[in-house]
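Structure ticket #2291
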Amino acid sequence: MKKEIVHLRPFQLDDAQAVFEAVEESLDELSSWLPALKADLSLIQSYLQAQPQARAEGEAYNFAIVDAGDDSFLGGCGLTQINQRHRFANLYYWVRTSRLRQGIATAATLQLAAFGFESLALQRIEIVVAVDNEASLRVAGKAGATREGRLRNRLLANNMIHDAWLFSLIPSDLANK
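Resolution: structure written out below.
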């Protein structure tokens, strides 16, 4: 059995400073794809305070990605835009700049997808990636997601519309992972 390099856990209020530092460190890389992300401690605290209610209402399941060895904060991921009727959700991920290219996002994606399939009874998880976001495209591929097609004018980032690739994971995709 493969040793996990990361663990996922629900965000906690006391994560605020660690999230702030990771966002501040990573703004140059993340701002192209996550324009709403800001290094503002009070906004981060508000976001963290809203997480228990979002989870309780089944609206979003957002997680801290932490190092399996020392529990340090590495990034975030989550299942959002949950469609209960058709049992699918959107999956996102981000990793702090100092820990890129270590397999963290791929490991988190696989753990999060397993959570979605096993705990939420989802039958499909979608990953929507801007066509120019090479790092996220690599993650989706390494996680074994199927590239289904190009979505024209799908994402808005920095007041610009971007085409995106739609990837999907279904429960059988994780059978050999």
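Closing remark: The first helix runs from residue 16 to 30.
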